[in-house]
Amino acid sequence: MSDTVDKEYTPSTLHDRYQIGLGEAKRLINSFGSDRLELDRLLGSRDRPLPQAGEQNLTAA
Prior knowledge:
- By secondary structure, this protein is mainly alpha-helical.
- Helix content is 52%, strand content 0%.
- Helix 2 (11-18) packs across helix 3.
- The longest helix has 11 residues, at 22-32.
């Protein structure tokens, strides 16, 4: 069975999925590996909005 194909990104598939440059896709795979789950977590977090100025983390109190 070839389950590895579904669990890893190539630079081309990462480029297509996240609309990033091919060079950036290669850099990410070299830095973090080609595991789909890890790269999806990493790249999925980039779309989260940053806290606005003046907002505090209420759980830190």
